[in-house]
């Protein structure tokens, strides 16, 4: 009997790109492309059920087994260390976690650095690894504003095209870690639906390799 797979996808641009990969891998679910506000879509014939969830929540659904597999950014995996298997780097959603500061900012290494970020754990481990003392300011969004208003000296945030930084007169000072989307699996689900999950991973892997060649 075909094993049914529950898949959590990150809502938004990345999710749409990633769904196209699942579709090309043979796990299509045409109703997902209908323009409506539904969040759960199923294709019984292929044996898949997709859910759209907030990108930062995908790992929670997968860790707790509400989804067997899902797609999460490496930023979320590093920040929250969910207890899941990381199966595959999808080589999409590529960006980097970086330290940024106002253009021309001069750092005084003898002073505690004020760092604003949504990624507290990543920022803390990064500065611990280079032995720099920081005053961490946890924010939930619009991080770029913090140094402009003097709330922080620098920010640790995701940089993709660099447009947000440029438009706010900030610049990258250091790259903390490269980021991309990862296919993750629930640990129990991986055991019980091993055949179905491995078949899906193989199919996705093939696409990633082919894309890398072109
Ligand atoms: C992220 C990040 C930056 C922006 C970077 O924000 O926090 O603000 O993208 O992208 P860019 O380099 O292409 O300009 P996101 O859109 O995920 O929303 P958020 O501010 O709510 O985190």
Order of helices and strands: EHEEHEHEEEHEHEHEEHH
Mean pLDDT, as a whole number?
95
Number of helices: 8
Count of beta strands: 11
Largest sheet, if any?
6 strands, mixed
Computed over alpha carbons, the radius of gyration is: 19 Å
Helix- and strand-based class?
alpha/beta
Helical content (DSSP H or I, runs of 4+): 25-40%
Q: Show unreliable segments.
A: none
Q: Strand order within the widest sheet?
A: 2-3-1-4-11-5
Distance between the termini: 37 Å
Apparent shape: elongated
Bin the strand percentage: 25-35%
Bound chemical compounds: 1-O-pyrophosphono-5-O-phosphono-alpha-D-ribofuranose
Mind explaining what this structure looks like?
The chain is an alpha/beta fold and about 210 residues long. About 35% of the residues lie in helices and about 30% in strands. It is built from 8 helices and 11 strands. The protein has helices at about 15-25, 60-65, 75-80, 120-130, 145-150, 165, 185-190, 195-214, and strands at about 5-10, 40-45, 50-55, 70-75, 85-90, 95-100, 115, 135-140, 155-160, 170-180, 180-185. The strands form 2 sheets. It has a 6-stranded mixed sheet with strand order 2-3-1-4-11-5. A 5-stranded mixed sheet has the order 8-7-9-6-10. The two termini are about 35 Å apart. 1-O-pyrophosphono-5-O-phosphono-alpha-D-ribofuranose (PRP) binds near residues 141, 159, 161 and 162.
How would you briefly describe this protein structure?
The chain has 214 residues and is an alpha/beta fold. It is built from eight helices and eleven strands.
